[in-house]
């Protein structure tokens, strides 16, 4: 079995693409409109992921601008070399961490969170602190 992708529904596709590609440096792999189903699928790859790594799928259902965040959803997680340096980059682009940085409960890594335009939590992990 191979893990392929995670899908999240977004209310403003262009704003989400801008956030993931310009703020988080994801690479846009594909964008396809499905007129009959009235939805658009976008696939993104995180920076520094291998070519065969899993991807993030953004699904935009035409005309739906907001979703209620489910109580079972937790977060996505990505490794960064330095949370502080990543935070500086975020701040230059008008964003910031929503929590942290702090040590993990076992004290072995630094962790922080950011929130995307639709309210999805993204955990940042700095493994070598």
Account of the 3D structure:
- This protein starts with a strand and ends with a strand.
- The protein is built from 2 helices and 8 strands.
- The longest helix is centred in the first third of the chain and has 11 residues, at 13-23.
- 14% of the residues are buried.
- The model has no long low-confidence stretch (mean pLDDT 94).
- It has helices at 13-23, 83-92; strands at residues 5-9, 27-34, 39-45, 55-61, 76-79, 99-103, 110-115, 121-126.
- It has 2 domains: 1-64, 2,3-Dihydroxybiphenyl 1,2-Dioxygenase, domain 1 (Roll), CATH 3.10.180.10; 75-129, 2,3-Dihydroxybiphenyl 1,2-Dioxygenase, domain 1 (Roll).
- The chain is α/β, with parallel strands linked by helices.
- The radius of gyration is 15 Å and the shape is globular.
- The strands form 2 sheets. Strands 1-4-3-2 form a 4-stranded mixed beta sheet, covered by helices on one side. A 4-stranded mixed beta sheet has the order 5-8-7-6, with no helix packed on it.
């Amino acid at each position: 079995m191979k893990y392929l992708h995670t899908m999240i529904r977004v209310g403003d596709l262009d704003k989400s693409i801008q956030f993931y590609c310009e703020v988080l440096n994801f690479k846009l792999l594909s964008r396809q409109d499905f007129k009959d189903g009235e939805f658009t699928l976008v696939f993104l790859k995180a920076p520094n992921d291998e070519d065969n790594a899993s991807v993030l799928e953004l699904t935009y259902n035409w005309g739906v601008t907001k979703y209620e965040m489910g109580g079972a959803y937790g977060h996505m997680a990505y490794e960064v070399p330095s949370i502080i340096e990543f935070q500086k980059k975020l701040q230059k682009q008008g964003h910031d961490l929503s929590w942290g940085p702090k040590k993990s409960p076992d004290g072995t890594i630094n962790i922080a969170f950011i929130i995307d335009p639709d309210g999805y939590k993204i955990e940042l992990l700095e493994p070598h602190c």
